[in-house]
Please model this.
Amino acid sequence: MNAHEIDYRLIGEEMQAVEIELDPQETAIAEPGSFMMMEEGIEMQTIFGDGSRENESFMGKVWNAGKRALTGEGLFMTAFSNNGLGKKKVYFASPYPGKIIPLDLSKVGHRIICQKDAFLCAAKGVSVSLEFRKKIGVGLFGGEGFIMQKLEGDGMAFLHAGGTIIEKHLAAGENLRVDTGCLVGFEPSVHYDIQFVGGLKNSIFGGEGFFFATLRGPGKVYIQSLPFSRLADRVIASAPKMGGKSKGEGSILGTLGDLLDGDN
Model:
């Protein structure tokens, strides 16, 4: 086993955190900004890339860090190492309401493909890089563009997604159509493509976009009920407009509308 073998515990329901227990000399890596707290004896260090290839040349590390940057993430990650005596714990928190998905990569084909901002943390030794979607249609209309994240290795990795998470097990040849924003990740054995919704009314007035993500088994697929983009759109739509007025203020039924909506 190449990755550090860590123990974990999920805490909470809607705003989850993950508690990772490190034995002496064990390390966890995380995206900057996900750290919550740690016990005495754990040291934090900023590293170049994901630290999965310690004997790699400097240019190799630059190349792999650069590939991570193409997914919209930074060149650096944070490593948390237990340099003390006995077991120590470090905690990482969800960035917004949703669920944390624990994945033992050794049990999912040593690789998982996921949306660009899904990765939260992992055992040291897990590689975090990009997955280039070769089909033009998938790249242009698949919701995640040409580039997705790829996690590889044999250790524990943790994804985060919005709302409730549904894990689907697709049989060989079984098809599933998913809103492109609701797709969190899938095993490499799953075939991923996009499909036009079809029908002028469905496309223009359906409110669900022009394309589905289509997934064909065998393999596992992870679906989120509340993509962050959908949550952000609702927050922006409900936010006060310029001058501090809500969308109902200034209209004839503004005050009444606010009362009926429960704003006052």
Notes: The two ends are 58 Å apart (CA to CA).
